Amino acid sequence: MNWTIIVIEALVLTALFTAMILIPLVKNPVWWIADYPEDIQEEFFKTHERIPSKFFTPAVLLKKGMALLIALALLLLVVWLAGAYDFLSALCVGYGIWLFIDWYDCFFLDWVLFANMKSVRLPGTEHMDKAYHQKRYHFVQSCWGMLIGLIPCLIGAGIYAWLFC
After folding, report:
1. Which of 42, 62, 126, 162 reaches 20 to 30 Å from 92, CA-CA?
2. What is the value of pTM for the model shown?
C-alpha cells in the first residue's frame, strides 16, 4: 500500500466533507437541524414552525443514506488507489480514513469551528453559547459515527476483495 496516497486521500476527502457540510450549513442552518443538540432545536422551535428533526425521519434518513452510498463509492476508489491487497487492508484503509474524518468532524468542526461561528447558528438561538459548546453531545455523536462507518467500510472492503483480489 502507498501511504503517501492514503494521506493525500484523507486530506482530499476531509476537504470534500467540509465543503459538503459547511456550504449548505452556512446557506441554511436548518438543513442540518437533526444534527443540533436537542435544547438548541427546542429553542429554535419556540419561534419557528416545527419540522421533523429526529434521526429516524424520512428526510434525515434520505440525507444520511445518500451520504453512506457516496461514502461507499468513494471507499472503493480510495482503497483501489491506495493499493489495498486484500479484505483486511481495504477495511483498514477505508475505516482509517473514515475515523480520521469522524474525529476531525468532532474535534475541529463541532468543538471549535461550529461552536464559535455565529453564521451557522439556528435563527433565534444565537445567544445560546453554552449549548453550542456541548462537547459531550458531539463526542457521543462521533461514537455513533464510528459505529455507522463500519457498515460502508465492511461492505466496501468486501466488494473490493471480491472484485480485485
Report:
1. 62
2. 0.89
d(CA 152, CA 25): 24
Cα–Cα distance, 67 to 79 (Å, whole number): 18
**Would you state the pLDDT for residue 70?**
87
Q: Which long-range contacts (CB under 8 A, 24 or more apart) does 20-26 make?
A: 20/67, 21/105, 21/109, 22/120, 25/114, 25/120, 26/119, 26/120
Q: Tell whether the model's pLDDT for residue 32 goes beyond 90.
A: no
Torsion sign, CA atoms 37, 109, 74, 63? positive
Do residues 152 and 68 lie in contact, with contact meaning Cβ atoms separated by under 8 Å?
Answer: yes
Please check the confidence at residue 56 and state whether its pLDDT lies above 80: no
83 Rama sector, left if φ>0, alpha if ψ -120 to 50, beta otherwise: left
Q: What is the structure's pLDDT at 35?
A: 87
Which has the closest alpha carbon to 156: 55, 102, 84, 105?
Answer: 84
